[in-house]
Design a protein that fits this description.
There is one protein chain. The chain has 329 residues and is an alpha/beta fold. It has one domain: Histone deacetylase domain (Arginase, Chain A), CATH 3.40.800. Helices cover 35% and strands 11% of the residues. Strands 2-1-3-8-7-4-5-6 form an 8-stranded parallel β-sheet, with helices on both faces. The chain is globular and about 50 Å long. The two termini are 28 Å apart. Bound molecules: zinc ion. Residues 175-177, 249, 251, 295 line the site of zinc ion.
Length: 329
Amino acid sequence: MSNPFKPGQPRLVYSAGYNTDLAAYGIDKPFALDRGELVLKKLEQDFGHAIPTLQPEPITDEEILLVHTASYLEALGKDRTWLDIFEFKDDEYKPVHESKLLWTMLDDIRIKSGGTKLACEIALDRQLAANLGGGYHHAFPDRGRGFCVIHDIAIALKVLLSENRIKRAMIIDLDFHQGDGSALIFKDDPNVFTLSVHSKEGWPEDKQQSDLDVEIGEHEADTYLMRTKGAVVHALDRFTPDLVVFVAGSDAYEKDVLPGTRFLNLPLETMWQRDKWVIDTCIDLGVPLAMVFAGGYGPDVWEVHFGAVKHLLIQSGERSSLSGFTQDK
Ligand SMILES: [Zn+2]
């Protein structure tokens, strides 16, 4: 690792291509809207200067096939497959209004997934990095689920493992929903440790078995931080990774609007404390960390990611060009 905390080195991955124009596909649904642009704008405001980002390359078919079946990749060329993944209701999808065919959305997803791979590569070089998107942790090898089409994290890790650039990795998944795709894909892989802290209630009803699962019940929100920290400490005691992928879903936040996430309504301060603590824990251990956004629905959830990415930049040596700037938020 070369001088990991040199200020000014890009460690955020973003592309204008992340801003998927759902209306162009005829979609009107409160998806995980693209939060990267909002986060980046607010960071630039707060730091008082442009924040350098790196543009990812789209993930290739060859890379997708390290995780997914050939028949599934082929099926992604048909609109019907996409309708199954997104489970549109009532007025949420109106093909008559689309100017782009649904299946061509794969182009955008390839770029965002390439962003996760690039963030992992930057983290290996510079300790800390974030993809301002990605985190499709529900995708299974043979089908997409829960808004997740291809499993960007698994693809990135399989690429790095196959190229011998890492030997062991850990996924720390703190999204509201269980990281069930990750659990399934790596269940027989001793080199990838999957940790998921998630809501006991809600989707997915049939959960998979991660290496370590912690379920938080609807009335246990006051134990969330303590149990999350306990789980991460326990996992890192048992397993020493060369790289952590931090799946920093914001859908347990009280302002998340997805009806299915109503069981956890954590305040912003708790979400920020959670994400800062994970980042600081990996720094203390000297383990490279790549963050991805994962779930988060509605107009306000970007605030969670903003706090986390700002902390990541401050810990990386990024300084404000504004006078009177305080770095404790
Ligand atoms: Zn989620």
